[in-house]
Amino acid sequence: MNIRRRQLIALVTLFVLSPAGCSGDKGTGTKPPPPTLSGNQVVIESKTVSGGADSVTVGIYVANEVALNGLVIPLEFRAVTPGSYITNSCKLNMPSDRRIGASPLTDMVVKLTYGDTGGVPCSGPTSGTYAISSPIDFTSPDGFMWAGISTASPPTLYYLPPGQDDQAGQFDNWPSEGESKAYVAGPSFEFVFDVTSTMGTFEIDTCCVTPGNHLEGTDLEGGTLLPSFTKSVITLR
Q1: Handedness of CA 41, 53, 209, 69 (dihedral sign)
Q2: pTM across the whole model
Q3: Which of 56, 69, 129, 140 is the most buried (most CB within 10 A)?
Q4: DSSP secondary-structure letter at 179?
Q5: What is the mean pLDDT of each run of 10 residues along the chain (237 residues)?
Q6: Cα–Cα distance between 228 and 232 in angstroms, integer?
Q7: How far apart are CA 75 and CA 118, in angstroms?
Q8: Cα separation of 225 and 202, whole Å?
Q9: How is 97-119 classified by DSSP, letter by letter?
């Protein structure tokens, strides 16, 4: 295990785990086409939904052109129009038949929620800054963080190979030597939430979680990868 992986493990285990949201089921609203992915990207889809809709589903797509053994995705819900926001329930899902859910990055997973901002800003791309994990309070802004680290070793697959969520594929020598695990095309993560009835917009953006977690991956040499990011704009009509 390289130094950077040990640092990531030490960092994410500093936090106290809390449930990543509340309940939610099927998606609602205008389903956009999947984004065109390339390079190193995290893209959250935008969509238009009816005000007051329940169980709206928003996909989070990931692409990486280099192999990764760690990935941190901190996100923030932020109202643009006062009163246009999530309400009652919100959940971050990682389907096990999608690319990251089927990969070695699920060896060690941390999912945290943040009802309040606070803390010392960290370097890298940031909007709000969050410090102490707590349940979201459905008052803008609210924060989420997902972090996944591979603890596997050869001869099994021990990293997320280069790829992108809009393409199906399979992992060889995973979850054990000689085995293969297939995954389907689709977003690696999905938010499922209810929305208020107030017409307007809110955003899902990247953010910062102290003491140093922002949107980043770790390559096999211990280097840091900073993917490009496309935020989501949710329009309530």
Answers
A1: negative
A2: 0.86
A3: 69
A4: -
A5: 49 38 39 73 96 97 96 95 96 96 96 86 71 92 95 95 96 96 97 97 92 88 92 97
A6: 13
A7: 15
A8: 28
A9: TSTTTTSGGGSEEEEEEESS--S
